[in-house]
Known about the structure:
The protein is α+β, with helices and mostly antiparallel strands. It has two helices and four strands.
Amino acid sequence: MNTTASHIQIRLADEADNSTLLRLAALDSAPAPHGPVLVADIDGEIVAARPGSGTRSIADPFRPTADISELLELRARQAA
């Protein structure tokens, strides 16, 4: 049983996140996101991202991120 709680933060990526987004895109075999990008940050680590251009989310394929990607999609629709 996992007794530690994770904190998920949905935020806009900034320039400091560029290398992490490139790595995440490579892991997901997806193009690197451009423009405004929403990211899901779990305890300080970006595990999923959604470009504002309406393309699909990218995520770390080695982590369970389906729910997190859905959360990013929901937040993007709310912001539109």
